[in-house]
Amino acid sequence: xxxxxxxxxxxxxxxxxxxxxxxxxxxxxxxxxxxxxxxxxxxxxxxxxxxxxxxxxxxxxxxx
Length: 64
Prior knowledge:
alpha+beta; two-stranded antiparallel sheet; 23% helix; 22% strand
């Protein structure tokens, strides 16, 4: 799995951080998404998929 984010689309909902805090963070200034782990571990993949599905603006892209 490879994860990419598009911070310019992010609306700062925080669903990514709530679901996969080991993979995503948010900037202090604007609260936009920051990718910490572009290649999540097998144990993190379910949470990453959940975070992507809950992102209201589709700012998280997953490639299997």
